[in-house]
Amino acid sequence: MQYNVVVIGSGPGGYVAAIRSAQLGFKTAIIEKYDTLGGTCLNVGCIPSKALLDSTEHFHNAKEHFAEHGIDIEAPKVNLEQMIKRKGGVVKANVDGIAFLMKKNKIDVHTGVGSFVDKNTIKITAKDGKETSITTDKVIIATGSKPTPLPFAPFDKKRIISSTEALELKEVPKHLIVIGGGVIGMELGSVYARIGSKVTIVEFLDSVIPTMDGTMGKELQKATKKLGFDFYLGHKVTAVENKGPEVVVKAESKDGKSIELKGDYCLVSIGRRPYTEGLGLDKVGIETVKGQIVVDAHLKTKVENIYAIGDVVRGAMLAHKAEEEGVYVAEQLAGQKPHVNYLLIPGVVYTWPEVSSVGYTEEQLKSQGRAYKTGSFPYKALGRARASMDTDGLVKVLADKETDEILGVHIIGARAADMIAAAVTAMEFRASAEDVARMSHAHPTYMEAVKEACLAATANRPIHM
Questions:
Q1: What pLDDT score was predicted for residue 34?
Q2: Catalytic site residue 443?
Q3: pLDDT tens digits along 102-137
Q4: Which of 3, 139, 196, 446 has its CA 20 to 30 A from that of 276?
């Protein structure tokens, strides 16, 4: 079979690249090694984790807040089996939707491991060992990433687990030890803290969510302490041992003090690594550096007809970043002039309160020596937040000191994940803080905090604080 475009990998980057290629008139195929489409995000990442986050947040609110709202119920009980079952239904609906989109766009789906024979020929090896080959003009590699294990403590999938196993636990952990205070660790820690687990975060750096603005990390740590989180920041893990009914984690602080933690599960969430196993990159001369496929500014590899997108190339490992790159490559192949603004790809943490961020952090601006001004506004001063009892959090706006152009927006609070889109829109059009401050914002809404933070940044004159 001869195609114009073949995409290897069906995660958000891959399936979006395939759909856009088909829309542009290319005869397109997609290769996926697993039986379901959607990659990590839909099967064992973004979608199932958000399903569990929503379920456990409902339980937490019923247990902690319903009475204050005047809703009297019997003490709620956790049915973890049903939570996992519902999560599975959400996943199925999403992956079935992707299968429908493949049919709708007349994209051929090949199931098996795709590997290069040469730059135009791809061998597909099915589970039963059967091999077939297809040829193509262009190839887009979108094989994603896998959880990174500790070198001295590989995943045993029983007590030492990755995010994949954390989404399928059969019991609520008594004590969940989380190594890594990044997005995945904080989200999955929240899932189990809400339903009764003691959660301990061990993080090598001095802040949780360390890639985001420092204020966000401090505020999220304060909020999750209310759920019962314990934190050991600035600690290096030195040993993890599965001792049957429990796992023992040893770590050292920067001043050399040792700690020993005992729990029934240890979630290792220290990051993810590009997944390129079985592709046969060496057969076509594609280079990798630290596991990442080397690409140019147009996402083209060293081989002229082969491109790579998403988690296997440089940049943030985010589903929406991969989607943008998938569209970019497809449109480029059609002779268009697409563009991706990597600075304005937002990041989100789906804890509660949620955290979202776009643009520069304050730490980045300081390191650049750039003159800036800052404005912030707390949720506790919002009428909408008081009404919903979601008063944890704030909006922080960074703007250029001279031009007032918005350089970064960082939000922690209710609905931050949705609110960040407005900041992205403003920054794509290079709005000033005053521009946003002078726009009418509906009352009462959480978005009023953005307006007030912009007022604080542009003229130090918030109205409601």
A1: 97
A2: yes
A3: 999 999 999 999 999 999 999 999 999 999 999 999
A4: 3
Give SS3 for 205: coil
Q: Which residues of the chain have pLDDT under 70?
A: none
Q: The CATH number of the domain where 323 resides is what?
A: 3.50.50.60
Does 154 fall in a domain?
Answer: no
CATH number for the domain spanning 391: value is 3.30.390.30
Ramachandran area for residue 236 (φ above 0: left; ψ -120 to 50: alpha; else beta): beta
In the block, residue with structure tokens 């750096």: 205
Is residue 369 a part of any domain in this protein? yes
Tell me the two tokens of residue 410.
């960082």
> Exactly one of 65, 298, 443, 464 is catalytic; which is it?
443
What digits encode the pLDDT tens for the residues 399-440? Answer: 999 999 999 999 999 999 999 999 999 999 999 999 999 999
Coil/strand/helix, residue 179: strand
Range of the domain at 419: 353-459
